[in-house]
Design goal:
Blueprint lengths: L2 E2 L2 H13 L4 E6 L6 H11 L4 E7 L1 H8 L8 H9 L6 E5 L5 H7 L3 E5 L10 H6 L3 E5 L7 H11 L2
Parallel strand pairs: 1-4, 2-3, 2-5, 3-4, 5-6
Length: 158
């Protein structure tokens, strides 16, 4: 089970993990409604290193990206649920439009994104590769989409 941490705590804990010889993977997203596609992607991301950081968009940044009806689940609740997953070591919230500054600060050994992101669209790619890390794109699980779930819920609403 992971921990929901502040950015300063994350830096300290990642430094300690590195001193212990652990490799760090990093992924990010909104994770508004957790579904099996998320779980499978997180498990695959975790298999690429000894520890996994999941950075989640703040409520404000989700609203900016997805619109005024999102997120459906608050940032603290999303963080708590993700931290409870076996595959996740740390969950941290970022408020910027992208996690680029956080990635540059942490410089994970492996930066993981979904296959729906093109290689040149992956934020933090240059920083991670320049530091000797690698970027891995994980195939998206077909049939799972938070946006589709939200549409179904809203359509079926009485």
């Amino acid at each position: 089970m992971g921990q929901f941490v502040r950015r300063s705590q994350l830096r300290e804990q990642v430094a300690a993990a590195r001193r212990a010889g652990r490799r760090i993977a990093f992924t990010n997203g909104c994770f508004d409604l957790l579904h099996p596609g998320h779980i499978r992607s997180l498990e695959e991301a975790r298999s690429l290193a000894d520890a996994l950081i999941v950075a989640i968009n703040s409520d404000r940044s989700v609203r900016e990206m997805k619109g005024p009806g999102r997120p459906l689940v608050s940032e603290n609740e999303r963080a708590e649920v993700l931290a409870a997953l076996e595959a996740v070591d740390w969950v941290v919230i970022f408020d910027e439009p992208t996690p680029q500054s956080l990635i540059a600060e942490i410089l994970p050994d492996v930066l993981v994104k979904g296959g729906d992101w093109g290689p040149n669209e992956i934020v933090g790619r240059e920083e991670v590769e320049a530091a000797g890390g690698r970027v891995v794109r994980i195939p998206i699980e077909p049939g799972y989409s938070t946006t589709d779930i939200v549409r179904r819920i809203r359509r079926d609403k009485p």
